[in-house]
Each structure stands twice: as structure tokens, then as C-alpha cells.
Amino acid sequence: MQLNWKLALALLAVLCLQLVQGSKPNWDAASGPEMGLQMAAHLAPSTPKDVQKTAAMAVISRVIGERSSQLFNVQVNKNMDLRSFQISMLDDGRILLMGWDGVSVCKALHHYLKYVLGKDVDWFKMRIELPTNLQLPNVTIESKSASPIIYHQNVCTWSYSFAWWGIEQWRRHLDWMALMGISLTIAPVQEAIWVEVYTDMGLRMEEIDEHLAGPAFQAWQRMGNIRGWAGPLTPGWRRYQLLLQQEIITAQHNLGMSVALPAFAGHVPRALKRLHPESTFMEVQRWNQFPDRYCCGLFVEPTDNLFKEIASRFLQNIITKYGSNHIFFCDPFNELEPPVAKPEYMRSTAAAIYESMRGIDPQAIWLLQGWMFVKNPFWTTDMAEAFLTAAPRGRILVLDLQSEQFPQYELTRSYFGQPFIWCMLHNFGGTLGMFGSAKLINSGIDEARRLPNSSLVGTGITPEGIGQNYVMYSFTLERGWSNTSLDLDSWFTNFSHTRYGVKDERLEQAWLLLKNSVYSFRGLQKMRGQYVVTRRPSFNQEPFTWYNASAVLDAWHLLLTSRAIIPLEDDRYEIYEHDLVDITRQFLQISADQLYVNLRSAYRKRQVARFEFLSVKLLKLFDDMELILASSRNFLLGNWLQQAKQAAPNTGEQRNFEFNARNQITAWGPDGQILDYACKQWSGLVSDYYRPRWRLFLEDVTVALHAGRPYNGTAFKLKVSQEIELPFSNKADVYPVTPVGNTWLISQDIFETWKSYSRDTLFLHNNRLLVPRKSGPK
Questions:
Q1: Under a CB-based contact definition with an 8 Å cutoff, are residues 263 and 329 in contact?
Q2: Which of 65, 135, 538, 576 has the greatest number of CB atoms lying within 10 Å of its CB?
Q3: Would you say the C-alpha torsion 491, 493, 494, 495 has a positive or negative sign?
Q4: Reduced to 3 states, what is the DSSP secondary structure of residue 296?
Q5: Residue 28: its pLDDT value, please?
Q6: Residue 15: pLDDT band with limits 50, 70, 90
Q7: Cα separation of 629 and 681, whole Å?
Q8: How confident is the model at residue 528 (pLDDT cuts 50, 70, 90)?
Q9: CA distances in angstroms from 612 to 154, 609, 705, 751, 754, listed in the order given
Q10: For residue 570, what pLDDT band results from cuts at 50, 70 and 90?
């Protein structure tokens, strides 16, 4: 087969890469910590020190403003320990931030801001205002990360949170990543490259369009779960995404971050079989009941010559477009059962995938999500060992994706020697709801480090969606940097100081109450953020709460009474309002669970008057939730929809982009295949989606009670699907993108309305009813 000019250029780029690679590292005898240091150095980009210094200074300027150069000086020093920083004062009164790389310098800035100046950042607030007359305290601090690699992102985050982001939002997030000390991430955008590859191989554009999913569902098309749903992807969008990804990678490399690039996992368009009838294709297991039209592509047998050809074409193109840090990611069996249940097949499959990377880059490392091993009976010890040991030790780097709840490194004996990263997954679908396992995370990282023959090389965060429970991500990243457990009470207390810029006993106590309640989860229940308010109504729900709701009520009251100590003009007041909305929403969410239990009881006992009374209360709760959510820009459906439409390359594509945005957070599929998986407690969704569903349900049950007949749940499912759930994706209502109302006044009014009801109602705790305390909030 003759090489075309594109492939020739790609081969030239690969040859140049191989010339500068030097000798291949050997990790066979290295311990976990040694392997981690060697791997981190191996993966670090070869960005010049002056470029990293400039990039770090630019981050500082964006965070604290134009006075940054008057207050701080930075230095990148490769003679320091890897992933370390030093803070000291220069003779001219400026603070010197010195680090091993640009990321370490930014981590030093964050440490100084938070632990010396008492100021912190947040996903929703990346600018810190410093007083004009500020005298910088003179300190000398040295710190080294106990985790050679600190990782962030999940392949799903790019769809659930990043789908519509432009470079401005990405710039803020990259700044945040640098401040947190994150050194490894992924760059999954690949659709434009696949179009080039498939076109060169002879596929028609309409055949490619049938394969590529819409802009809100690309993560699952990339992993072979779906095909074509909510597409097509137009050339303008593909081109824009490629250019955006290149800009993101450049910014990350400039700071010294390592970036894993996509490799070929084996999933291809069905039409490819037309061109290669002699090759071995496997049918992919149906995923979440998606119909044939959207599920699924074909899986090319990795030992087939066609696999090697496609992998080579794709990876050469990827490296040409993005450069390389010698690390590539792909997941051949993400929530998909392998076609052959034999260890020798698993070994040959993994070996072929790894060899496809090594053939292009002899120093390649395969970054693999360990999610496929979680609670999957297919993966016996023999199967997992055959798969993981098919590549030399140190050539597969595993993300132990949900270490805080379902760690797999114990079951796999530290992944049979392959290095792994301890990760907190925490969130599914970008759902809302206060939740976390602070104690388990604090102890779990230590346990992984102390494991005999541990191959742990790093820590990280792998949420499917961000924009919620910031405290848990801040804590986990700091815990990963630290070589010892953190004092939880001290850490949460200080979090309240730096979050609001004041030291106040009420705010301290509020966060300690939350630490000991919503952030104290430990158990095996799958916490997916689907609560009564956001689930399709039925009498089959079992609300679960692992804490006493009175702790949330008390914390809410403490936040309300703290308003006066945070001036309205203070830059921290917006964060205070965000937290007030979130805790109000949380208490209403809990109250809905309580109301539901009583509604179900009233129905089963045929108590018509009680059922009607509770129905009115529940609908009032939805109205109050809509009010409080509408008062904060971070809880508006309008922003999500507007960003989707603005991301569309032209006005003609806006309708499909809005469909993608609406469908993902509601039906998630053509017929509600993953209904409400990515639910959001947002203003607009509450009023026009969740409340109407419950109103329809309550009306149907009330009619059934009055008629003396059983409620027909099957008929309701069909009715609510056709009248509310599926039509929502095709609507075009415009929602506010700016807040409405005074957050504190709305929250205070809701507090006065619901505190008495809650105190008089039984609390749910560990799936049983508790008698509430009689005392009021302190």
C-alpha cells in the first residue's frame, strides 16, 4: 500500500520523536515510590525552563491581577527534588516561588495564598483580590509531593462538564489544575483525526457520520458504547475541537504537565467490514439497551493485521497533531464484556494493544482505566492477571478509578506489579447532592502506600462531572500531596477560614457539622446522585441517608446567621451565596425524601386526605427549590443551554446542540435508556421537568385512591415518558442566564418554612426512621 503525503509526514514526526528519546527506562526491579519518581520524570514534557517560568507567571497574573510581578518572583529549578517547591522572601520584599516545574511553582503560590494569606480559589472563583497596602509575610517553606504523579480527569468529564467549554473556561480550569499541583491529565479529542484516517482508508463520509456521536455524547462513542447517537458531527465542530485541544495541550505542556493521548482500542464503524471482509470483527455487547441504530460499532480483533494498520495510522496522526509525552490511553472493554472468556485471549489482546503503541513510540506507556474490573464477575484473578501482565512491568499505568469505595488494587495484588494511581471518583454524571468520604480518603491513601509490595505511583481525582462538592476535591488533592494523614477537624476549620476570608466560629461549626454528616459516608451503596426530587416518580424508591438531617439544618442555620460578617462587596460573598444555595437545596432534597416516605405510607394505608396534604407539601417544596436555585448563576439550566448553542459552529447547528444538552441531563438516549443518570438540580429543570413529573404522578395516584382502585405504575411510565421526559429534549424554551432574587432572603424564608416541618418529621438515617432531636438550631 502506498503512503500518502499525510502519512509520510506522520512517519517523519515519529522518527524524529524516536531519535530524541534516548534509552528506554527499566522499572522491573523498582519499588512503587522509585518507579513513581522515574515514571514522572520520564513522562514530563521537555518544555524549556524559561517557557515554564513564563507560563507560571501568567497563571499568577490571572489569579491575583496586574500586581503579580510586584509581589512575586518565580524560578523553575530542575536541580530540586521532583514535584517540590520552596517559598522564601527576596531582599526587595517580593516572595520567591521556586519549583521543580511550572506546576510546582503554581502549587507554591496556592500554598502561600491559602496557608499564609488565608485566601483560596474555587472552580467558580479563580480571582483573588489582595489589598493594595498588603505587606507580604516573610516565610520560608519547603514542600515535596508524596505522590510523584497527581492526576485529574475522567473520560466522561469531557462530556458531562467540558462539552461546551471554550478557551476562556479552559484557561481558568488549567490555572486551577496548576494551583492544585496536577501533573498528569488526558486529551481525548480525536474525531477530526478519525475522519482523516477513515477517509484515507476508503469509508464514505455518510458512513463515518453514522458512527460519530453528537457533541454531548462523544465520551461513550470513543469507548465503543454507542455510535451515531445525537449526531452528526459537522466539519466545523470537528475542526474547532481539534484546534481547541491543541491550544489546551500547549498550555499544559508550557506548565510542565504531562498529557496522555488517545490510542486505538479496537472500536470501528460498522461500514469498515465492507472494505475488509477478510478481517476478524467482533460484535460489541449491547450497552444500556441502546437500539441497533445507535449501538454499537464493531470491535477489530487486536491480533488481526487490520488492527495494527489502523492503530499505526491513528497514533502517527495523533502524535503529529498533538506531540507526545510517551503516554497513551485507551479502554477496549469499558462496561463491555470481552468477546472471549479465556486468559490466553485476554493476554494476546492486551499485548497487541500495547505493541500497537510501542511500535510507534518505543517508550510508550499505556494509561488504563481500572473501571472495567469494578464489580464485574468476568474479571476473575486469572483474567485480570493475564491482561495486566501482557506488557512489561511499568508499561501499563492503571487508574484505580474509585479507590475511595471500590479499590481494585487490593483484589489484584497491586495490579500484579503494574503501577497504579489511587483515585477518588466521587461523582457520577455531574449530579448534585452533598456527599463525600473524607475519613476514608484520609486513611485510604496511607493504606495504599503501606500495602506490601505496593506499586502505587500517584493519587488523583476522576469525577465524571465537576462543579459540585468542591471541598472533597480540594481535600483529596492536598491529601495526595501530603505524606501523612491530615487532621480533619483542623483542615475543615481552615477551609471555612480561607473560603470566606474570615475566621468565625459559626462558619467553622457549620463545616464541621457537614464534615461529620454529609462528608462522612462509608459503605458499599452506589451513590449516583439520584434522589427523590430527580428520579422518575414511583412507589419503588428507597431513599437512603447515612447521616442525621438535623446536622444539615443546624449548619444551614449557622450559615444564615453568618451573613453580616462577610461584606456584600467582598469577593468572597459570591462563594458564601453559592454555599447558601447549595445547603438550602440539600435540605430540601432531604425533606423531599422524608415527604416521599410519608406519601408512600399514606397510599398504602389508603389515607386519601393525608396523601393530598402531603402532595401539596411536596409541590410547594419544588417551588421553593426552584426559587433558591434561580438566585445563583451556578445552578441555572439557562447557562448550560446557552453554552451549548454558543458552542455550535453556526446557527444551523444550534438546534442539535441544544438537543444534545437537554437530552444528556434528562432522557440520556433516544427512549430514556439511561434516564436521569446525569440529572441536575438546576433552576428550569426543577420547574419544567422534575415538578411536572411529580405533579402528574400525584394526580394519577390521587385519582386511583378516590376511585378505590390500585395505582397503575406501568401506565404512568408510558404516560410520563411521552408527555414530559422525551419531549423535553426537543423543546426550545429560553431560560434565564442571570440570577433572580436575593439569595439570603430566599434562603431565610425557606428556612423558616421548613425547619418546623422537619423538626416534626421523622428523619431518615441508614434506611431507617429516626426520632429527631427536640432542640432547635444553635
A1: yes
A2: 576
A3: positive
A4: coil
A5: 73
A6: very low
A7: 8
A8: confident
A9: 44, 5, 10, 23, 18
A10: confident
Domain ranges of the chain: 49-144, 155-347, 530-758
From the CB of residue 462, how many other CB atoms can be counted at a distance below 10 Å?
25
C-alpha cell at 115: 496557608
Q: Of 402, 424, 426, 429, nearest to 161 (Cα)?
A: 429
695 contacts 617 by C-beta, under 8 angstroms: no
Domain 155-347, CATH homologous superfamily name and number: Glycosidases (3.20.20.80)
Give the three cell numbers for residue 666: 434528562
Which residue, among 313, 426, 326, 309, has the nearest Cα to 366 in the 3D structure?
326
Query: How much is the average pLDDT of 424-429?
Result: 97
Dist. CA 279–CA 258, nearest whole Å = 36
Q: Report yes or no: 739 and 632 within 8 Å, Cβ to Cβ.
A: yes
In the predicted model, is pLDDT for residue 369 greater than 60?
yes
**The model's pTM:** 0.94
If one counts every other C-beta atom within 10 angstroms of the C-beta of residue 754, the result is: 22
More confident residue, 287 or 777: 287
What is the phi-psi region of residue 397: left when phi exceeds 0, alpha when psi lies from -120 to 50, beta otherwise? beta
Whether the ω angle into residue 423 lies within 30 degrees of 0, i.e. cis, is no
Could you tell me the three cell numbers for 124?
Answer: 467558580
Edge to edge, the sheet with strand 84-89 lists 72-76, 95-99, 84-89, 141-144
Give the other-Cβ count within 10 Å of 710's Cβ. 9
The CA distances from residue 540 to 535, 543, 713, in Å, are: 11, 10, 10
d(C-alpha 328, C-alpha 261), whole Å: 5
Measure the CA–CA gap between 688 and 696, rounded to whole angstroms: 12
Q: What are the tens digits of pLDDT across the range 261-306?
A: 999 999 999 999 999 999 999 998 899 999 999 998 899 999 999 9
- Per DSSP (E only), the strands in 340-407 are 365-369, 396-400
Measure the CA–CA gap between 274 and 296, rounded to whole angstroms: 16
- Can you name the residues that pair with 683 across neighbouring β-strands? 636
**% of the chain residues with pLDDT over 90:** 89
Query: What is the Cα 416 distance to its own chain's centre?
Result: 27
Contact 678, 465 (CB under 8 A): yes
Residue 757 has what pLDDT? 73
Measured CA angle at 412 (ends 407, 416), to 5 deg: 130
Contact 662, 728 (CB under 8 A): yes
In this prediction, residues 26-55 reach a mean pLDDT of: 90
Tell me the residue ranges of DSSP E strands in 126-180: 141-144, 149-152
Is pLDDT of 13 > 70? Answer: no
The percent of the chain in helix, strand and coil, each rounded to the nearest 5, is 50, 10, 40
- Reported as a pLDDT band with limits 50, 70 and 90, residue 773 is very low
**Cell numbers standing for residue 3:** 503512503
The CATH code that applies to domain 49-144 is: 3.30.379.10
Q: Is the pLDDT of residue 467 over 70?
A: yes
CA dihedral 166, 172, 175, 180 (to 10 degrees): -110
Grid cell of 306 as nine digits:
487490520
Question: How many residues are given for the chain?
Answer: 778
Domain 530-758 in CATH 3.20.20.450: no
Cβ–Cβ < 8 Å for 507, 696: no
For range 329-346, the mean pLDDT: 96
Give the pLDDT confidence of 432-456 residue by residue, as tens digits.
999 999 999 999 999 999 999 999 9
pLDDT tens, residue by residue, 710-767: 999 999 999 999 999 999 999 999 999 999 999 999 999 999 999 987 655 544 444 4
Residue type, position 305, single letter = N
Asked whether the bond before 537 is cis by omega within 30 degrees of 0, the reply is no
Return the sign of the alpha-carbon dihedral for residues 505, 506, 511, 513.
positive
d(CA 258, CA 599): 53
DSSP state of 711: -
